[in-house]
Amino acid sequence: MHIPRRKIINDPVHGFITIDHPLIFSIIAHPFYQRLRRIHQMALAQLVYPGAVHTRLHHSLGAYHLMCLAINELKNKGAQITPDEEVAAKAAILMHDIGHGPFSHALENVLIPGVDHEEISLAIMHALNKELHGQLDLTIRLFTGNYHKFFLHQLISSQLDVDRMDYLTRDSFFTGVSEGVIGYDRILKMFVAHDNQLMIEEKGIYSVEKFLVARRQMYWQVYLHKTVLAAEKMLVKIITRARETGAISFSPSLNGFLHKPHTSQTVHQQLPAFCELDDYDVIGSVKCWATHEDVVLSTLCKNLLKRDLLKCKLQTERFDEALVQQKTKAVMESLNITSHEAGYFVFTGEAINTTYKLGDEHINVLYKDETVKGISNVDNPLIHQTLSMPVKKFYICYLNI
Amino acid sequence: MHIPRRKIINDPVHGFITIDHPLIFSIIAHPFYQRLRRIHQMALAQLVYPGAVHTRLHHSLGAYHLMCLAINELKNKGAQITPDEEVAAKAAILMHDIGHGPFSHALENVLIPGVDHEEISLAIMHALNKELHGQLDLTIRLFTGNYHKFFLHQLISSQLDVDRMDYLTRDSFFTGVSEGVIGYDRILKMFVAHDNQLMIEEKGIYSVEKFLVARRQMYWQVYLHKTVLAAEKMLVKIITRARETGAISFSPSLNGFLHKPHTSQTVHQQLPAFCELDDYDVIGSVKCWATHEDVVLSTLCKNLLKRDLLKCKLQTERFDEALVQQKTKAVMESLNITSHEAGYFVFTGEAINTTYKLGDEHINVLYKDETVKGISNVDNPLIHQTLSMPVKKFYICYLNI
Amino acid sequence: MHIPRRKIINDPVHGFITIDHPLIFSIIAHPFYQRLRRIHQMALAQLVYPGAVHTRLHHSLGAYHLMCLAINELKNKGAQITPDEEVAAKAAILMHDIGHGPFSHALENVLIPGVDHEEISLAIMHALNKELHGQLDLTIRLFTGNYHKFFLHQLISSQLDVDRMDYLTRDSFFTGVSEGVIGYDRILKMFVAHDNQLMIEEKGIYSVEKFLVARRQMYWQVYLHKTVLAAEKMLVKIITRARETGAISFSPSLNGFLHKPHTSQTVHQQLPAFCELDDYDVIGSVKCWATHEDVVLSTLCKNLLKRDLLKCKLQTERFDEALVQQKTKAVMESLNITSHEAGYFVFTGEAINTTYKLGDEHINVLYKDETVKGISNVDNPLIHQTLSMPVKKFYICYLNI
Amino acid sequence: MHIPRRKIINDPVHGFITIDHPLIFSIIAHPFYQRLRRIHQMALAQLVYPGAVHTRLHHSLGAYHLMCLAINELKNKGAQITPDEEVAAKAAILMHDIGHGPFSHALENVLIPGVDHEEISLAIMHALNKELHGQLDLTIRLFTGNYHKFFLHQLISSQLDVDRMDYLTRDSFFTGVSEGVIGYDRILKMFVAHDNQLMIEEKGIYSVEKFLVARRQMYWQVYLHKTVLAAEKMLVKIITRARETGAISFSPSLNGFLHKPHTSQTVHQQLPAFCELDDYDVIGSVKCWATHEDVVLSTLCKNLLKRDLLKCKLQTERFDEALVQQKTKAVMESLNITSHEAGYFVFTGEAINTTYKLGDEHINVLYKDETVKGISNVDNPLIHQTLSMPVKKFYICYLNI
Fold first, then answer.
1. Per-residue DSSP letters for A322-338?
2. Does D29 reach chain A within 8 Å, measured CB to CB?
C-alpha cells in the first residue's frame, strides 16, 4: 500500500490541519512564506492581550484549513469543483497575506506609502508563479476575481470569506476575548453555491447576525482598544521620526525602505528586499534607537520597549483643539523640544471600524424557494442596526507628564 | 465608594488574571519584567507547532495566577498565611524566570556557559530589591527556601509547583497537543499544607498520575520532538560559530556575551547588559549573518530562517560512530569544508527527559488518617513505572545532502 | 490540623464547585432538592439538541457557584458582606428553582393553573425553614427582596442575575449552540455594589451588549425553536386531554394535580404531594397512555415518544384563520374526530422572547465619575436595538397528513 | 440547483454531525432508535457527576460521526471503501448499542439474566432488516465480522474502535473529568488500513499510550467510583427484591421481564416488549415501590431516590468475612429483618476494570518499513505497565447505621 505524502499540523484553534498536495507543500516551504512566521498577526495587541502573539503564517494556515472545509461542504451540496480549482483556491488563501510587511496593518502605508498589502501579495504570487512554471495561473485568476466560478473568489475575499472567519476566531482564541467567537463551523455548514455566487442558506441568518456582532465587538474591544492604538501609533511615529532624522537601521532592507522614496513600481523591483523584512528588523532597530542621540526618537523607542505608552482616549466627537494645544505645550516644556517635535507625543486622529461597508460586496441569502436577498434586505433589525452603526471614533494620544 | 486599584488581564488559558497589589504592579511595570515579552517560552518549538509563540511574560503571569488560586485553597483549608507572605509568594513566582536569556533553555549555558537562569533570576531579584527598598526581602527568602513555612517555597519550586502546572497547561494549549492537559484545577483543590510541607490529599493520586504521564508525553512529543531539537541545536551551533569566527552582532549587549569570557561573577556585574538581551538580538543577528562571509555561519543562518533544518533521529541506543563519519564526510565534500567545520552540520548528543528526578524533592501524599507517604511509595504501579522509565534518548543531527 | 468538611463537585461547565457550609450541605441533601435531579432543565429541547438533557439540580448548583464568585468579587472591591449574608445569598440561589414542577416552564401554569414556580419555591423555602429551625430567615428575606443590601437580591433575581448567567452558559454548553456563550466571567469581574445596588462598571458595557445579543439568539435558536415548541405544546395537549378524559396516571401525586381543582391555597396544602412530582411521572404516564382507548390521547403520546412531532411554523404576523380551518378539517377527516378533538392537533399561539422587559428592573452602569445610568440610556445603539426589538412571533402547529 | 436532503445536528462534543443518507435517516427515525433517548449512557453516575445525564442516543450519534471521520481518513490514505460499505459501516455503529436495556450496563444480565446487549442489538438489527427489505444485510455482516474488509469491523468493535473513542470523550466531557480526554482526533489521523486490518501508524504510539491511560483513569475515577458503584448495586438489589417479592410495576413490559423466566430464545420472541423498556419504567417503578409494604424494597427505593446511598469501600484485597458479618448483624437489628433480607443492605463483590484484555484483539502498529507489531510488543514500558496492571478491586457496600 502506498501512503501518499501527507503532513498534519497541530493547530490549537482548528485541531489538525492536513497538507496533502505537492503545490501546497512547495508554497509552504518557500522562504517568502516562511517569512510570515516572523510577522505578528496582531501587531502590538499583545501589549494588552499577552496571548496575542500568533503569526501571519499561523493565520494563513488556518484560513487554508477553513477553505478545505468550505470546499468540502460545497461539494457535498452538489457544487462542481474540479481538483485543479480546489488546489488553486487553497493556494490562493494560503498566500492572501504573503504581501504583509512588518507589523502588518500597523505599518501598512507607512513603510511604503501608497502601496497596500494586497498589491504586494499579488506581486509575490506572480514572482512565485514564475519559479513554479505557471502552476499558479489559476490561483491568480481566483485571487483577482477573474474566473467564472465567482464563489471561489468569494471564499477568498468577501464579507464572509474564510480569511475573516479565521482571523476573528483565531484572534479571539489568542486574546481570550470570548466575545469574538463566531461559530464559523455553523456558517460553513450554511454555505451554498448558487448561480456561481456564494450564498448562505436561510437558516444561517442568526449565524450571520452573530458573526457581525462578534466582529464589531472585536473592533472596539481589541483591534481599536485605546492602549493597542497608542502603542501602534507610537510605532508609526518611530518610523516617521527615523526617516526624518535619517536614523540608520542595522538591517539593509529596512534602510532601503526607510530612506529611499518608493512607489508602487519601485516596490515591484525591490520585491526581494521586501521579502527580507519582518518584525525583527523593526524591533531590533527600535532597540538600537533607544540610545539614539535624537531625544524624540530615543524616547519613543525606550518607552515602547518598556511599555510606557502614550495615554489614549477615544470618543465619538472630535477632540477640542485647545486640549491638543495644552498637552503639546506641556510636552514642549517638559522635554524641551519644538512644537513640531512635540507632535510625536501629542496627536489626534480617527479610528475606523469597517465592519461592513455597505458599498462592499453583499452577503446573499438563499431562501428555500430559491429567492435571493442581500443581507441588508433581510427582515432582521439587529443586522440592520449593526450594519448601519457609527463606525468611527476620534482619538487623542499624548505623553502623560 | 473607593475601588482599590485593580487590573484584570485576559488570559486565554486561565481566564482573567487579577492584579491588585502595588508591589505586583511595580514588578510587572519594570523593564526587566517587560523584557520577558520578547523571549519565547518554547524557543523554536513553533517551527513544528505554529501556535507555540507565547512568551515568558505570559507564562509567569499564568504561574502567578495559579499561585493566587493555590494560596486561596490552602487558606480555605485552614493554612495560616499572612498578607505579607501571600504577596511575597506571588512576587517570587512572578519573577522565577526573570533570569532567562534569549530563547530560554535552548541557549541556557550557551550564551553564558556555566551560569543557569535561576542564578540570574536571583541576582535580578536582589537588584530589584535594592530599587524597591527591601520590599522583596521575604520574596527572596521564599524563593531560596529559607523560610519556616516551607510549603510556600514548594509552591514556587518542587515536583508539583505552580510553575510546572502552568507551563504544561500553557504549552499544551498553545501547541494544541491535548495529551499535555493535566487538570491543574483538580490538583490545586487537592493541595494541603501539613507540618509546613505541601502535600496532596489521598484522593488526588490519580491527578498526580495524570500529571506525570502528561508531562512525560509533552517531553517526547513536544520538548524533545526531533525537529524542534534539530532547530534548537542549529541555534546553538550558530552562537558557537559566531563566537569562534568573531562575527559581530548589531547588538552591543549580545556582542559582550559572545566575545568576552564570562563567569558567574562577571555576569553579576553585567546584569544591566544581560537585561537588554532578548530573542530579537539573536534573530536579528541571525538575519545579518545569513550573508556572512563564513560559509558555515551563513549556511546555518540561512537554513534556520527558511526552516530548512538538519535531519534528526532519536533512538534509545547510542548512534554508531561509522554513521557519523559517513555523514561528516559527505558534508565535507559537498560544502568543501574541514572536518571541524563539518561538525557544525553533523553531530550527536543526548536528549534527556527529566520527568521526575528520584533524588529530587518528593511529592508527599497525606492520607485521611494523617499518615504521609512519598509518591514513590504509594501503591500505584503506573506512577512507579512513569517515574522509573528511561529518560534518555540519543540523537543525531545531520545535513541532508 | 483540622480540615473542615468540604466537598468538590465536578461541573463540566464551571470546573469545580465547592460546598463548605453545613447549611448548604443540609439543603443539597434534602429530598426536595434531590428531586431536581429528575427534572430536565430544558424540558423537551433535547428532541432537537440531543445534549440538552441536563437537570434543574445541575443548573442550581451552577448558579450557586457563580454566586460564590460574584460575592468574592464584590468583597474584593470593598463591599461589606457578612458571613451570614453570604451563606443566605448562596442558599437562596440554590433554591430559586426548587418550586419547578415536571418539565419546568413547559408545563408551568398547566399542571397547576395560575400558580407559578416562584410562588412554590417560596412555599418550599418556608417549609424547609421550619425543619431547619429558622436558619433560612435571612435567605427568605434576600429572596423576596426585603433586605437593605438590595444588591444581594439583585444577584439572585434581576436582569443580570447569576441565574440567567448560569442558564445561558449552561444551556449553550449542553446544546452546543456557541452563539449563546456570554462571557459570564467578565461580567462578574465588572460587578460592583454601589448605594446598595448592583451595578456594572463602565468598561463592562460591551459584555452587557454581548449578553443581551446572546440571550436573544438563544431564544430564537433554542428556547423557541419551532420543533422544540411543537414538542412542548404536544406535552401540554397531552396533559389537557388526560384531564379532559379523566385518564388515570400510575402516579398518585400526578393524579391529584390532574384531576382535582387547585388554587394557590390548596397547593400549599399539597406541598408534599407536589414534591413527589418529576419528569418520570409525566413520561411514565405518557408511555402508559400511548395505548389509552382515547385516540386523541394515545396518538399524541405515541407520536411524542417516537418523536413524530407536529409541524410548526413561526412568523411575525398572525396566521390566517383559513389555514387553521383547512388543516383542522384535514385532521378531522383523517382521524375521524370532532372539531374540538382536532384542536389537539391543529392550533396557533404566540411565542414570546422576554429578553429584557423595559418595565423590569434596570441594569445600572456605574461610570468612573460615579454617575449612574440605566442601560437603556447608555450611548450604545446596538443595546437599544436589542432591547426594543420585536419579541413576539406567532406559531401554528398541525399534524402533517 | 437541487440540495440533497441533509440534516445537521449540534453536538457539544464533536460540533456538527451531518446526516445525509436515506438509510441513516430511516434508522434514526425508527422508534427502536428513538427509545435510546430515554436510556442514560452512564446509568447512575450522575449521582456523583451531575452533568453525566447524556443518553445512549447521543453516544451512538457521536460514534456515527467518528465513523464518518475515520472512513474519510482511510479513504484519503488510499483505502478502497465503496459507498455501500461506507453507509453499512455507519449504520452498524449507529445501532451498536440499540440492544441496551434500561440503565445499560448497570442492569445488564439482571433484567434478562444470561443475555448481553450485543446479542439483543443483533436481534433488533435483524428485525429492522426485515422492515427495511434487506437494506441492512451488509451492515449485519460488518457488525458480526463476516466481511473480508475486516478493518471496517474493527472500526465498529476492537480495542481502538470509534465506540470507545466516543464514549471516553463524551463521558469525560459530560462528567467534567479532564483526565479522560483522549485526543481522538489524532488517533483518527493515525489510522491506516493495511492487509484489510485496522492499524495505527508508528508515530501514533504516544496517542495510544494516552488513550490507554485515560481509559484506565476513567474506570477508577468514574465508572467504578465507589459511590456510583453503590448506587448501581442498589438498583440491582431493587430489581432482585421486586422479583423476589413479586412486586408489580405499572409498566406491563417491565412486569414481563421481572416476573417471567427468560432465555436468549424467549427474548427474541419478546423483542417488541423489550423495545418498550427504558429508564422511565424503572425509575417510575422505584418511585411507586418507595411506599411498598415490603420494608426491604421500600427502603432501598426511598434511599435511592433521595440519594441516601449505601456506603462503599474499594480495596485490592478481599474484605474480611467478619466485617461483613458485623455490618449484617447491625442491619438486622436496626431494621428488624432476617439475615437473608440484610443481604440487600450489606454485600461484597468484585469491580473489574477491563482496560485491555490481553486475550482480546490487538492494536496493531504499522511501521514505516511496513513491519507490523502488536501494541504489547512495542518498545514502550508505560503501555506494557498499563496493560498488565491489576484490573480488579474488591468492594463492600453496607447501610450506614
1. HHHHHHHHHHHHHHT--
2. no
For residue D9, the Cα-to-chain-centroid distance in whole angstroms is: 22
Collect all residues of chain C within an 8 Å Cβ-Cβ radius of residue B20: 76
ipTM: 0.94
What letter does residue D37 receive in the DSSP assignment?
G
Rg of chain B, C-alpha, whole Å: 23
- HSE, CB side, 13 Å, CA atoms: give it for residue D236: 22
Beta-ladder partners of C398: C311, C346
- Taking the CA of residue D55 and the nearest CA in chain C, the distance in Å comes to 8
Residues C242 and C258: their CA atoms lie apart, in Å, by 8
Supply the DSSP string of D280-294, one letter for each residue.
Answer: HHHHHHHHHHTT-S-
Please choose, from the candidates B360, B363, B366, B388, the residue with its C-alpha nearest in 3D space to the C-alpha of residue B374: B363
The three grid cell numbers given for residue D140, joined into one nine-digit string: 449485519
pLDDT tens across C301-335, in order? 999 999 999 999 999 899 999 999 999 999 999 99
Q: B97 CB contacts (<8 Å, ≥6 apart)? A: B36, B56, B59, B60, B104, B117, B121, B163
Query: D341 — phi, psi (to 5°)?
Result: -65, -35
Mean pLDDT rounded to a whole number for chain C = 92
C59-to-C51, C52, C98 alpha-carbon distances in Å: 14, 12, 11
What is the helix (H) or strand (E) element at residue A314, kind and residue range?
strand A311-315
| Pairing of the two strands B364-366 and B372-374 | antiparallel
Chain A residues with beta carbon closer than 8 angstroms to that of C213: 209-210, 213, 382
Q: Cα–Cα distance between D249 and D288 in angstroms, integer?
A: 8
Residue A174 burial (CB count, 10 A): 28
The model's confidence at residue C375, banded by pLDDT at 50, 70 and 90, is confident
Residue B242: exposure state from Cβ atoms within 10 A (0-12, 13-18, ≥19): buried
In the DSSP assignment, the letter for residue D355 is: S
Mutate to test the interface with C, among D287, D292, D308 (most CBs of C within 10 A): D287
Residue B332 burial (10 A CB sphere; 0-12, 13-18, 19+): middle
Separation in Å, CA B77 to CA B80, B374, D161, D393: 9, 21, 44, 31
C-alpha to C-alpha distance for D86 and D77, rounded to whole angstroms? 15
Label residue B322 exposed, middle or buried (CB < 10 Å: 0-12, 13-18, 19+).
exposed
DSSP state, residue D42: T
Mutate to test the interface with D, among C53, C58, C221, C308 (most CBs of D within 10 A): C53
Per CB-CB distance under 8 Å, the chain C contacts of B186 are: 16
H or E element at residue D188 = helix D184-190
Average pLDDT score over residue span C36-48: 98
Taken in order of first residue, the domains within chain B and their CATH numbers are: 7-224 (1.10.3210.10), 226-352 (1.20.1250.30)
Of B181, B186, B213, the CB nearest to D213: B213
Find chain B residues with C-beta within 8 A of A247's C-beta: none
Rounded to whole angstroms, the Cα distance separating A270 from D366 reads: 50
Check whether D279 has a pLDDT greater than 80. Answer: yes
pLDDT tens for each residue of A42-82: 999 999 999 999 999 999 999 999 999 999 999 999 999 99
Burial class (CB in 10 A: 0-12, 13-18, 19+), A293: exposed
Task: Look up cell 458503584; give the residue.
Answer: D229
**Distance separating alpha carbons of residues D89 and D325, to the nearest angstrom:** 52
The predicted model scores a pTM of 0.94
Alpha-carbon distance values, B358 to B153, B201, B355, B377, D370 (Å): 19, 21, 9, 12, 38
Phi and psi angles of residue B347, each rounded to the nearest 5 degrees, phi first: -160, 160
SS3 for B393?
strand
**Nearest alpha carbon to residue D66 among D219, D186, D196:** D186
- Measured CA to CA, the distance from residue B94 to residue B140 in angstroms comes to 12
